[in-house]
Amino acid sequence: MNDDLAALAARIDRTNELLQRMLAEVAKTPSTHAIFVDAGYLYAAAGRLVAGTEDRRAFDLDAEGLIEALIDRARTIFADSRLLRVYWYDGARRRIHTAEQQSIAELPDVKVRLGNLNANNQQKGVDSLIRTDLESLARHRAISDAALLGGDEDLVSAVEAAQGYGARVHLWGIEAPEGRNQAEPLLWEVDSQRTFDLDFFKPYVSRRTAAAYEAAGSRPTREDVRFVGAQIAAKWLAARGRESLVELLPGHPYLPGSVDQDLLVEAEGLLQYSLRGQADLRRALRDGFWEHLQAQY
Length: 297
What we know:
By secondary structure, the protein is an alpha/beta fold. The chain has helices spanning 2-28, 39-51, 63-77, 99-105, 126-139, 156-164, 184-189, 198-201, 210-217, 222-240, 242-248, 257-271, 279-296, and strands at residues 31-38, 59-61, 81-92, 110-117, 123-124, 145-149, 168-174, 192-196, 205-207.
């Protein structure tokens, strides 16, 4: 009987020793956090707070400086945690990066994820991207804490999904000049809330001068658009070669749908102006494209 008790006591001691080792290893493993930024909310709320407008064309945002400030603030809040990365969610036509989005994507520790941007400049699919990332990272224990800068009620499901796997979700908001700019159901679901004020955003948002704003929204001339069409044609020819040009020429003056759409999207990016519903400018764009190609044949 004494031998059985001794054996049991020995097994208990071994089990306790194993548990202590496991706890020691867990203690050595730092917790990890990530920052999730809904850029649509950020631009709208910070623009209204600092520049008095939600129109992106009316102000400049120092994204690099702001991201660094958010990382520094997270480092203070999650003092015993390391940063996984910053996830930056934005919309773009056909999910093609703008020059600004590309520069953000090139920053260290930043991952840009794009949803679609419709004809009314409304983001589509961004909330589902946030949910997918939050849920996946929480499920694989890649993060213990998520700082979510956003305000849309559709993000509630993303918060619930991450919390279901044990992650804590902290909602970050931007001070509203009046009322609220975050949905109440979202405020109810998160583990903590924090609001950043005017002083925090002021160094990173600056209103453009009236001249710069008007230039950004002014209608380009037909010659401007024709020149852009020729630029894109030169790039297209360099990438695809003369064989593709030979296949394209019999269709003149019409372009295949996929080529025409790519031409439109790239031209709008270069011009910073929408050509939708601008039939004369669309014709000038195609004319410039064809003229360059025919000159090379």
